[in-house]
């Protein structure tokens, strides 16, 4: 089948590689333009760009598509059977959505209509959902509103991290898009009930509010690492909280109070959380024991 692939981050790479390995003809790969990154702010290509180059596939990196008549015309001229879209990062205008014979098929990392939007993996963990999954949908002009072709669920356990869930859903998305192209299942409209949205994350989403209960803070830590990361303040220093665990015991201490020299901290509603791995600015991440041997975090201190 003659395809275009449109994606940018690591999540999209397994699908691109699976489509190529399955023998589909990939006429063009679209991804975000190179951006300054790392020390020296040198131009850096995205993961899909690098994967496409490794497969010797042609890459296009338009900065915008809306109002870009030349790019829309070039896309239509590819004569596509379908376009596969996975976390591309640009909104496709109507002429591009209509150009492929079987439309533009999106690999979305949730069980639609729950968690439409930019950060569905993190949103599912933050909300305490016990499952999520991947939906293959035919795109329309709305935000993740198109009809569904296939969906498959995966469980979210009490220790599931965003990193682990990301990798599992990326592999599942690669498998499901191959099925969708091979089987051409009928499109089913999304339910009108149960619609939720997962907005784009910001750094401020990672700030820990110790007045929340320990389970909510634990979900925040698991959902938002590695980015934007969860953090708190101790005096003038910002501490990254990379791993934590809610505790069964109750406490009457004010939220944010350090309870002992083992990393236990009071949270809201009388709950407590144990810090397991922390990082200071410019330092390596450390397990709590090693961290406390070199950092003055003592019982009675308050984290903010």
Produce a short descriptive summary.
It is built from eight helices and 16 strands. The chain is an alpha/beta fold.
Based on the coordinates given, report the CATH architecture of the largest domain. Answer: 3-Layer(aba) Sandwich
Label the structural class: alpha/beta
Largest sheet: 7 strands, mixed
Give the averaged pLDDT, no decimals.
97
Number of strands: 16
Order of helices and strands: EHEEEHEHEHEEHEEHEHEEEEEH
Query: What's the name of the CATH homologous superfamily of the largest domain?
Result: Formyl transferase, N-terminal domain
Write the layout of secondary structure elements.
Elements: E1 2-7, H1 13-21, E2 25-30, E3 35-37, E4 42-44, H2 47-54, E5 59-60, H3 69-76, E6 82-86, H4 94-98, E7 104-108, E8 116-117, H5 120-126, E9 131-138, E10 148-155, H6 162-183, E11 197-198, H7 214-224, E12 230-234, E13 237-246, E14 264-266, E15 272-279, E16 286-287, H8 288-294
Parallel strand pairs: 1-2, 1-6, 2-5, 6-7, 8-11
Antiparallel strand pairs: 3-4, 7-9, 9-10, 12-13, 13-15, 14-15, 15-16
Helix pairs in contact: 1-6, 5-7
């Amino acid at each position: 089948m003659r395809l275009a692939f449109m994606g940018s981050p690591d999540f999209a790479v397994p699908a691109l590689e699976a489509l190529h390995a399955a023998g589909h003809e990939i006429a063009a790969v679209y991804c975000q333009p190179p951006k300054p990154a790392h020390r020296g702010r040198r131009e850096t290509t995205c993961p899909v760009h690098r994967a496409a180059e490794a497969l010797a596939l042609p890459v296009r990196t338009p900065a915008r598509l809306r109002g870009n008549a030349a790019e829309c015309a070039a896309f239509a001229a590819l004569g596509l059977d379908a376009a596969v879209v996975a976390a591309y990062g640009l909104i496709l205008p109507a002429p591009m959505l209509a150009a492929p014979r079987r439309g533009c098929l999106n690999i979305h990392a949730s069980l639609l209509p729950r968690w439409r939007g930019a950060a569905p993996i993190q949103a599912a963990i933050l909300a305490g959902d016990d499952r999520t999954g991947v939906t293959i949908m035919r795109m329309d002009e709305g935000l993740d509103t198109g009809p569904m072709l296939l969906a498959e669920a995966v469980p979210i356990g009490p220790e599931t991290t965003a990193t682990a869930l990301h990798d599992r859903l990326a592999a599942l998305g690669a498998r499901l898009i191959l099925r969708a192209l091979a089987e051409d299942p009928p499109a089913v409209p999304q339910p009108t009930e149960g619609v939720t949205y997962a907005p784009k994350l910001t750094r401020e989403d990672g700030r820990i509010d110790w007045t929340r209960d320990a389970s909510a803070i634990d979900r925040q830590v698991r959902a938002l690492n590695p980015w934007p990361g969860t953090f708190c303040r101790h005096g003038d220093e910002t501490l990254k909280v990379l791993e934590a665990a809610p505790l069964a015991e109750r406490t009457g201490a004010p939220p944010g109070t350090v309870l002992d020299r083992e990393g236990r901290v009071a949270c809201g509603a009388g709950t407590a959380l144990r810090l397991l791995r922390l990082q200071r600015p410019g330092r390596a991440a450390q397990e709590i024991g090693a961290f406390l041997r070199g950092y003055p975090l003592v019982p009675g201190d308050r984290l903010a």
